[in-house]
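ligand=hypoxanthine
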Amino acid sequence: MNEVQLHAENVRQSAARITAALGGLQPKIAVILGSGLGGLAARVEGAVTLAYKDLPGFPVLTVAGHAGQLIIGQLNSVPVIVLNGRKHFYETHDAYPLKTLIRAVHAVGVETLFLSNAAGSLRPHIKVSELMLITDHINFLGLNPLVGPNDDTFGPRFFPVADAWDKDLRAQVKVVAQQQGVTLHEGVYVAFRGPSFETPAEIRMAQGWGGDAVGMSSVPDCLIARHCGMKVVGISCLTNMGAGLSDEILTHAHTLENAAKGAGAFERLVLASLPVLGR
Ligand code: HPA
Protein backbone atom coordinates (compact mmCIF):
# COMPACT_ATOMS: atom_id res chain seq x y z
CA MET A 1 0.00 0.00 0.00
CA ASN A 2 1.31 3.49 -0.76
CA GLU A 3 0.90 6.39 1.70
CA VAL A 4 -2.33 7.63 0.08
CA GLN A 5 -3.93 4.18 0.22
CA LEU A 6 -2.73 3.58 3.78
CA HIS A 7 -4.21 6.89 4.89
CA ALA A 8 -7.53 6.16 3.18
CA GLU A 9 -7.60 2.78 4.89
CA ASN A 10 -6.87 4.38 8.28
CA VAL A 11 -9.72 6.85 7.76
CA ARG A 12 -12.05 4.00 6.81
CA GLN A 13 -11.12 1.85 9.80
CA SER A 14 -11.24 4.71 12.30
CA ALA A 15 -14.60 5.86 10.92
CA ALA A 16 -15.94 2.32 11.29
CA ARG A 17 -14.85 2.19 14.96
CA ILE A 18 -16.37 5.61 15.64
CA THR A 19 -19.61 4.62 13.92
CA ALA A 20 -19.82 1.49 16.04
CA ALA A 21 -19.30 3.58 19.19
CA LEU A 22 -21.94 6.13 18.14
CA GLY A 23 -24.67 3.58 18.78
CA GLY A 24 -27.11 5.42 16.52
CA LEU A 25 -26.22 8.94 17.70
CA GLN A 26 -25.71 11.25 14.70
CA PRO A 27 -23.50 14.20 15.64
CA LYS A 28 -23.32 16.97 13.05
CA ILE A 29 -20.73 18.91 14.99
CA ALA A 30 -17.33 18.11 16.45
CA VAL A 31 -15.41 20.27 18.91
CA ILE A 32 -11.61 20.25 19.10
CA LEU A 33 -10.47 21.36 22.53
CA GLY A 34 -7.33 23.50 22.67
CA SER A 35 -4.60 23.74 25.31
CA GLY A 36 -6.08 24.13 28.78
CA LEU A 37 -9.64 24.06 27.41
CA GLY A 38 -10.24 20.35 28.02
CA GLY A 39 -12.85 20.93 30.75
CA LEU A 40 -15.73 20.48 28.32
CA ALA A 41 -14.68 16.86 27.86
CA ALA A 42 -15.84 16.08 31.40
CA ARG A 43 -19.25 17.65 30.72
CA VAL A 44 -20.23 15.31 27.90
CA GLU A 45 -23.39 13.45 28.90
CA GLY A 46 -23.60 9.74 28.17
CA ALA A 47 -19.95 9.82 27.21
CA VAL A 48 -18.41 7.00 25.23
CA THR A 49 -14.67 7.52 25.05
CA LEU A 50 -12.28 6.18 22.44
CA ALA A 51 -8.54 6.62 22.97
CA TYR A 52 -6.73 8.00 19.91
CA LYS A 53 -4.27 5.12 20.24
CA ASP A 54 -7.11 2.70 19.42
CA LEU A 55 -8.06 4.60 16.26
CA PRO A 56 -5.80 3.69 13.33
CA GLY A 57 -3.78 6.64 12.03
CA PHE A 58 -4.92 9.01 14.78
CA PRO A 59 -2.31 11.29 16.42
CA VAL A 60 -0.17 9.96 19.23
CA LEU A 61 0.06 12.88 21.61
CA THR A 62 3.07 14.14 23.53
CA VAL A 63 2.06 17.49 25.07
CA ALA A 64 0.79 18.05 28.62
CA GLY A 65 -2.77 19.37 28.56
CA HIS A 66 -3.67 17.35 25.44
CA ALA A 67 -5.40 14.12 26.39
CA GLY A 68 -5.82 12.21 23.12
CA GLN A 69 -9.41 11.11 23.47
CA LEU A 70 -12.41 11.13 21.17
CA ILE A 71 -15.56 11.50 23.24
CA ILE A 72 -19.02 10.80 21.91
CA GLY A 73 -22.15 11.99 23.68
CA GLN A 74 -24.27 15.08 24.19
CA LEU A 75 -23.42 18.59 25.28
CA ASN A 76 -26.40 20.76 26.17
CA SER A 77 -28.59 18.03 24.60
CA VAL A 78 -26.78 18.26 21.26
CA PRO A 79 -25.06 15.13 19.90
CA VAL A 80 -21.35 15.89 19.58
CA ILE A 81 -17.95 14.40 19.06
CA VAL A 82 -15.40 16.07 21.32
CA LEU A 83 -11.77 15.74 20.33
CA ASN A 84 -9.62 16.28 23.35
CA GLY A 85 -6.13 16.78 22.05
CA ARG A 86 -4.53 17.25 18.67
CA LYS A 87 -1.08 17.10 17.16
CA HIS A 88 0.73 20.33 16.35
CA PHE A 89 3.23 21.00 13.61
CA TYR A 90 5.91 21.72 16.21
CA GLU A 91 5.70 18.02 17.07
CA THR A 92 5.89 16.59 13.58
CA HIS A 93 6.18 17.31 9.88
CA ASP A 94 3.57 14.65 9.28
CA ALA A 95 0.08 15.98 8.57
CA TYR A 96 -1.46 12.53 8.12
CA PRO A 97 -2.49 11.96 11.77
CA LEU A 98 -4.43 15.22 11.86
CA LYS A 99 -5.92 14.48 8.43
CA THR A 100 -7.02 11.06 9.65
CA LEU A 101 -8.70 12.55 12.71
CA ILE A 102 -10.62 15.21 10.80
CA ARG A 103 -11.51 13.08 7.79
CA ALA A 104 -12.69 10.18 9.97
CA VAL A 105 -14.98 12.52 11.88
CA HIS A 106 -16.27 13.89 8.58
CA ALA A 107 -16.79 10.35 7.30
CA VAL A 108 -19.17 9.56 10.18
CA GLY A 109 -21.40 12.50 9.27
CA VAL A 110 -19.97 15.53 11.05
CA GLU A 111 -20.49 18.68 8.97
CA THR A 112 -19.17 21.40 11.26
CA LEU A 113 -15.90 21.67 13.13
CA PHE A 114 -15.72 23.93 16.19
CA LEU A 115 -12.05 24.74 16.82
CA SER A 116 -10.52 26.23 19.93
CA ASN A 117 -7.02 27.18 20.93
CA ALA A 118 -4.88 29.11 23.36
CA ALA A 119 -3.30 32.15 21.75
CA GLY A 120 -1.28 35.27 22.44
CA SER A 121 -2.95 38.66 21.99
CA LEU A 122 -1.53 41.20 19.56
CA ARG A 123 -3.90 43.97 20.63
CA PRO A 124 -4.06 45.89 23.90
CA HIS A 125 -7.89 45.82 23.89
CA ILE A 126 -7.92 41.99 23.64
CA LYS A 127 -6.99 41.07 27.19
CA VAL A 128 -5.62 37.94 28.80
CA SER A 129 -8.27 35.28 29.52
CA GLU A 130 -10.73 36.89 27.08
CA LEU A 131 -12.02 35.15 23.96
CA MET A 132 -11.67 35.96 20.28
CA LEU A 133 -13.81 34.67 17.45
CA ILE A 134 -11.51 33.86 14.53
CA THR A 135 -12.61 35.75 11.42
CA ASP A 136 -9.69 34.78 9.21
CA HIS A 137 -6.17 33.48 9.44
CA ILE A 138 -2.64 33.93 8.17
CA ASN A 139 -0.83 30.67 7.62
CA PHE A 140 2.76 31.39 8.68
CA LEU A 141 3.49 27.75 9.54
CA GLY A 142 5.67 27.34 6.48
CA LEU A 143 3.57 24.28 5.85
CA ASN A 144 0.18 23.47 4.43
CA PRO A 145 -1.26 20.13 5.57
CA LEU A 146 -2.62 19.49 2.06
CA VAL A 147 0.86 19.48 0.49
CA GLY A 148 1.61 16.10 -1.04
CA PRO A 149 -0.38 13.72 -3.19
CA ASN A 150 -4.05 14.68 -3.31
CA ASP A 151 -6.72 12.04 -2.86
CA ASP A 152 -9.66 13.42 -4.82
CA THR A 153 -12.07 11.28 -2.82
CA PHE A 154 -11.47 13.62 0.15
CA GLY A 155 -11.38 16.94 -1.71
CA PRO A 156 -9.99 18.79 -4.71
CA ARG A 157 -6.32 19.57 -5.35
CA PHE A 158 -6.96 23.31 -5.28
CA PHE A 159 -9.63 24.90 -3.12
CA PRO A 160 -10.59 28.40 -2.01
CA VAL A 161 -10.30 29.57 1.61
CA ALA A 162 -11.75 33.05 1.25
CA ASP A 163 -14.58 31.81 3.44
CA ALA A 164 -12.48 29.54 5.68
CA TRP A 165 -14.13 30.69 8.93
CA ASP A 166 -17.83 30.45 8.22
CA LYS A 167 -19.61 33.79 8.19
CA ASP A 168 -23.04 32.51 9.18
CA LEU A 169 -21.72 30.41 12.06
CA ARG A 170 -19.71 33.39 13.28
CA ALA A 171 -22.80 35.56 13.27
CA GLN A 172 -24.64 32.92 15.31
CA VAL A 173 -21.85 32.61 17.87
CA LYS A 174 -21.75 36.40 18.25
CA VAL A 175 -25.45 36.49 19.08
CA VAL A 176 -25.00 33.71 21.64
CA ALA A 177 -22.03 35.53 23.22
CA GLN A 178 -24.17 38.63 23.63
CA GLN A 179 -27.00 36.63 25.16
CA GLN A 180 -24.57 34.93 27.54
CA GLY A 181 -22.79 38.15 28.49
CA VAL A 182 -19.48 36.71 27.27
CA THR A 183 -16.93 39.21 25.94
CA LEU A 184 -16.08 38.00 22.45
CA HIS A 185 -13.55 39.88 20.34
CA GLU A 186 -13.12 39.19 16.65
CA GLY A 187 -9.93 38.98 14.74
CA VAL A 188 -7.32 37.40 12.54
CA TYR A 189 -5.33 34.46 13.89
CA VAL A 190 -1.72 34.18 12.79
CA ALA A 191 -0.31 30.67 13.00
CA PHE A 192 3.38 30.37 13.86
CA ARG A 193 4.95 26.96 13.87
CA GLY A 194 6.58 27.12 17.30
CA PRO A 195 7.65 25.46 19.53
CA SER A 196 9.43 28.64 20.56
CA PHE A 197 7.12 31.51 21.32
CA GLU A 198 7.63 34.49 19.03
CA THR A 199 10.23 37.21 19.30
CA PRO A 200 9.06 40.79 19.87
CA ALA A 201 10.08 41.55 16.26
CA GLU A 202 7.91 38.70 14.99
CA ILE A 203 5.04 39.98 17.09
CA ARG A 204 5.41 43.47 15.56
CA MET A 205 5.47 41.86 12.11
CA ALA A 206 2.28 39.92 12.84
CA GLN A 207 0.62 43.12 14.08
CA GLY A 208 1.70 44.87 10.88
CA TRP A 209 0.15 42.07 8.83
CA GLY A 210 -3.19 42.74 10.47
CA GLY A 211 -3.07 39.87 12.94
CA ASP A 212 -4.93 40.06 16.23
CA ALA A 213 -3.76 36.83 17.88
CA VAL A 214 -0.87 34.39 17.46
CA GLY A 215 -0.85 30.68 18.10
CA MET A 216 0.51 27.33 16.99
CA SER A 217 -2.64 25.45 16.04
CA SER A 218 -6.09 25.43 14.37
CA VAL A 219 -4.99 26.61 10.92
CA PRO A 220 -4.06 23.09 9.71
CA ASP A 221 -7.33 21.75 11.17
CA CYS A 222 -9.27 24.47 9.40
CA LEU A 223 -7.57 23.80 6.05
CA ILE A 224 -8.11 20.03 6.22
CA ALA A 225 -11.74 20.51 7.20
CA ARG A 226 -12.42 23.07 4.46
CA HIS A 227 -10.72 20.81 1.90
CA CYS A 228 -13.28 18.07 2.59
CA GLY A 229 -16.17 20.54 2.64
CA MET A 230 -16.81 20.94 6.36
CA LYS A 231 -17.78 24.29 7.85
CA VAL A 232 -15.43 25.74 10.45
CA VAL A 233 -15.87 28.09 13.37
CA GLY A 234 -13.18 28.85 15.94
CA ILE A 235 -12.43 30.60 19.19
CA SER A 236 -9.10 31.62 20.68
CA CYS A 237 -8.64 31.99 24.41
CA LEU A 238 -6.01 34.65 24.94
CA THR A 239 -3.56 33.35 27.50
CA ASN A 240 -0.93 36.09 27.27
CA MET A 241 0.07 39.21 25.45
CA GLY A 242 2.38 38.52 22.50
CA ALA A 243 6.10 38.57 23.30
CA GLY A 244 7.37 42.06 24.04
CA LEU A 245 3.90 43.51 24.61
CA SER A 246 4.15 42.90 28.35
CA ASP A 247 6.81 41.90 30.87
CA GLU A 248 5.54 38.36 31.35
CA ILE A 249 7.80 35.44 30.48
CA LEU A 250 5.92 32.98 28.28
CA THR A 251 5.78 29.33 29.31
CA HIS A 252 3.42 26.46 28.59
CA ALA A 253 2.48 26.35 32.30
CA HIS A 254 1.52 30.01 32.01
CA THR A 255 -0.59 29.21 28.92
CA LEU A 256 -2.45 26.45 30.77
CA GLU A 257 -2.94 28.61 33.86
CA ASN A 258 -4.46 31.52 31.95
CA ALA A 259 -6.47 29.24 29.67
CA ALA A 260 -8.05 27.87 32.84
CA LYS A 261 -9.12 31.42 33.74
CA GLY A 262 -10.82 31.85 30.38
CA ALA A 263 -12.21 28.33 30.31
CA GLY A 264 -15.43 29.17 32.18
CA ALA A 265 -16.55 31.71 29.60
CA PHE A 266 -15.33 29.46 26.80
CA GLU A 267 -17.36 26.50 28.05
CA ARG A 268 -20.45 28.66 28.57
CA LEU A 269 -20.16 30.03 25.04
CA VAL A 270 -19.62 26.63 23.40
CA LEU A 271 -22.45 24.99 25.37
CA ALA A 272 -24.90 27.76 24.49
CA SER A 273 -23.76 27.83 20.84
CA LEU A 274 -24.17 24.13 20.15
CA PRO A 275 -27.98 24.04 19.95
CA VAL A 276 -27.85 26.97 17.53
CA LEU A 277 -24.98 25.70 15.38
CA GLY A 278 -26.15 22.11 15.43
CA ARG A 279 -29.51 23.01 13.92
N1 HPA B 1 2.32 32.48 20.81
C1 HPA B 1 2.09 31.31 20.20
N2 HPA B 1 1.25 30.40 20.69
C2 HPA B 1 0.64 30.66 21.85
C3 HPA B 1 0.85 31.86 22.54
C4 HPA B 1 1.73 32.82 21.98
O1 HPA B 1 1.97 33.92 22.54
N3 HPA B 1 0.07 31.80 23.65
C5 HPA B 1 -0.56 30.62 23.63
N4 HPA B 1 -0.23 29.92 22.54
